[in-house]
Amino acid sequence: MASTTRTIGFVGTGEIAEAIILGLRHGGNTQPIVVSPRSAGRSASLAAELADVAVATSNQAVLDESNIVVLSVLPPQVPDVVATLDWSSVDHLHSVVAGLAVADLSSLITDPPPVSRSIPMPPNRWGLGPIPLHPDDPTPRAMLEQIGTVIAVGDESMFDVFTGGSALMGTFFEFAAVSAGWMEKQGLDGDDAAAYVAGLFRSLATQASELNGVELAVQPESCLTPGGLNEQVLRGMTDAGFRDAVRAQLDAILARIRGS
Ligand SMILES: NC(=O)c1ccc[n+]([C@@H]2O[C@H](COP(=O)([O-])OP(=O)(O)OC[C@H]3O[C@@H](n4cnc5c(N)ncnc54)[C@H](OP(=O)(O)O)[C@@H]3O)[C@@H](O)[C@H]2O)c1
Q1: How far is ligand 1, taken at its centre, from the CA of residue 13, in Å?
Q2: At what angle do helices 40-49 and 15-26 cross, to 10 degrees?
Q3: What mean pLDDT do residues 141-164 have?
Q4: Ligand 1 centre from 72 Cα, in Å?
Q5: Is the pLDDT of residue 226 over 60?
Q6: Is 123 in the pocket of ligand 1 (CB under 6 A)?
Q7: CA of 119 to the centre of ligand 1 (A)
Q8: What is the whole-number distance in angstroms between the Cα of residue 74 and the centre of ligand 1?
Q9: What average pLDDT does this structure show over 200-212?
Q10: Is residue 46 within 6 Å of ligand 1 at its C-beta?
């Protein structure tokens, strides 16, 4: 039988599981947490450094000791991991596996518990960032609200659209890294360049967060000084195919998620 103390279990103790666990503790959460034994170094570190985090002896032991189980393995690993387990004691299965529909995950399990999915991201370790959740359910919501701003998404096809947007993380960091690297190449200290770019992007993201959809759509043009430096770069990037490239990649992500 599952514990009555609302233990959170993790099957898959990788990057995103660690971010969620750190985010929970960062926000003051004290619920017992049990993690699966794979990624032994990371699991052991989390258990050593955080109160009430334990490493289970097996994936089945995670399920047996937890009320809500967060599935955080890689997509190709899911069928083998979930199908061999007995989920009967688990109240809720919450998946962070990218691109895996609720019905498809449920179909891998005999008599599955309620299933939900979300898109946490690494900054949730500091309680920062939006977390799309489908379907809206009080059990995962209570957990996720401790590490970020939950966006309830009723329509799973719209959840796919959020998944597409979340795939821009690497491109964001590449944009920042190329920008800071260029500044360093001109002679600036590398750390100073990184700090400047990060601070600039953080301030611009704050400004963007004040805009509604219509305002954001025109912001790239409305922030420009006619004939100015920003205008020159934006025109050059547009001529180089920047906008079309972003849209094409997002289209490709959506097609991949939807298997079309
Ligand atoms: N990273 C992100 O920013 C992010 C954001 C949103 C969603 N996601 C999703 O989160 C999931 C995990 O991503 P990640 O970046 O955290 O990947 P990751 O760091 O590679 O973590 C995967 C974890 O699963 C473990 N694992 C593999 N086979 C297992 C098994 N049979 N039983 C138990 N654990 C097993 C791995 O252990 P070993 O190391 O021992 O193989 C590792 O700890 C993915 O489905 C991804 O789509 C990730």
Answers
A1: 6
A2: 10
A3: 97
A4: 5
A5: yes
A6: no
A7: 13
A8: 5
A9: 98
A10: no
Question: How far, in Å, from the CA of 165 to the mean position of ligand 1?
Answer: 20
Q: What is the dihedral of CA 35, 36, 40, 42, to 10 degrees?
A: -30
Q: Would you kindly state where each structural domain of the chain is located, as residue ranges?
A: 8-154, 169-258
Classify 153 in phi/psi space as left (phi over 0), alpha (psi -120 to 50) or beta: beta
Q: Does domain 169-258 have CATH number 3.30.310?
A: no
The single-letter DSSP state of residue 4 is S
Q: Is 71 in the pocket of ligand 1 (CB under 6 A)?
A: no
Query: Where residue 4 falls among pLDDT bands split at 50, 70, 90?
Result: very low
pLDDT tens for 22-77 read: 999 999 999 999 999 999 999 999 999 999 999 999 999 999 999 999 999 999 99
Answer yes or no: are the C-beta atoms of 166 and 121 closer than 8 Å. yes
Contact 108, 82 (CB under 8 A): yes
Ligand 1 atom showing the smallest separation from residue 120 Cα: 6
* Residue owning tokens 């002679």: 187
pLDDT tier at 231, thresholds 50, 70, 90: very high
The values of phi and psi at residue 143, to 5°, are -75, -50
Q: Could you tell which of 13, 18, 74, 121 is best to mutate to test the pocket of ligand 1, judged by most ligand atoms within 8 Å of the CB?
A: 74
pTM score: 0.95
Topology (CATH level 3) of domain 8-154: Rossmann fold (3.40.50)
Task: Give, in order, the Cα–Cα distances in Å from 247 to each of 82, 119, 205, 214, 242.
Answer: 35, 21, 20, 18, 9
Distances (CA, A) of 248 to 156, 228, 244, 251: 22, 29, 6, 5
CA distance 104 to 126: 31
